[in-house]
């Protein structure tokens, strides 16, 4: 008659199985990011950003507000930015004076650009208790040299990209590096219409991609340049929620592994 399997042996076998299952689950969760969107806003339309948040909070959305022209911010603006940050949004940099980085560095040098545009921005927000982790180029004006320099001070750098006819060729899908490009969702952009944005979102969903968007001033009805209509933001948020996608901030991209 065979000897019965000891309780100790069974216990060890269970531990080994649990160990391999845990390792397998952990590997899956860290190497596969979930399809989603990064919604970013540029400049210093703080009041409008807060109003947009009031309307879109029902979607549990997250956005990244890339702030420029610090000296033009009021005490109320700073308070509202802190409130947005406390609600889970990210406050990022967009230049202390909103200078064209490419043109300025060409006429001066990269170090002077950092002295005039970057270091004052970081310090000004630091004094207000806001740590800047990400940066978006004003006008999308960038160079590889500046990319290299800015990565010494920020986790993620965002440029801009145009929307092409073939969505698959767009550069606005996150590629796993510390450099990201956003596609504009302001109503004045040549590529912009809701059907096109829906195609971009569908591509991201189908191919497990993260799409980066950028706008400026949220409004009910766009009548000027650099205005994004609230219905556009609403549509994006509805798509994300209904398709079980995810909202990311810019700095969160830095923790994702390249797909």
Please write out the topology.
Blueprint: H1 7-31, E1 36-43, H2 46-56, E2 63-67, H3 75-86, E3 90-93, H4 101-107, H5 110-127, E4 134-136, H6 144-150, E5 156-161, E6 179-184, H7 194-206, E7 210-215, E8 217-219, E9 227-229, H8 230-242, E10 246-248, H9 250-253
Parallel strand pairs: 1-2, 1-7, 1-10, 2-3, 4-5, 5-6, 6-7, 8-9
Helix pairs in contact: 2-3, 4-5, 7-8
| Silhouette | globular
Low-confidence stretches: 1-5, 7-32
Largest sheet: 8 strands, parallel
Number of strands: 10
- Which class best fits the helix and strand makeup? alpha/beta
- Rg estimate, integer Å: 22 Å
Number of helices: 9
**What is the overall pLDDT average?**
88
Beta-strand proportion? 15-25%
How are helices and strands ordered from N to C?
Answer: HEHEHEHHEHEEHEEEHEH
Distance between the termini: 55 Å
Query: Helix fraction?
Result: 40-55%
Could you characterize what this model shows?
The structure is a single chain. With 259 residues, this protein is α/β, with parallel strands linked by helices. Helices cover 42% and strands 18% of the residues. It is built from 9 helices and 10 strands. The strands form 2 sheets. Strands 1, 2, 3, 4, 5, 6, 7 and 10 form an 8-stranded parallel β-sheet that branches. Helix 2 (46-56) links the parallel strand 1 and strand 2. The chain starts with 6 loop residues before the first helix and ends in a 6-residue tail after the last helix.
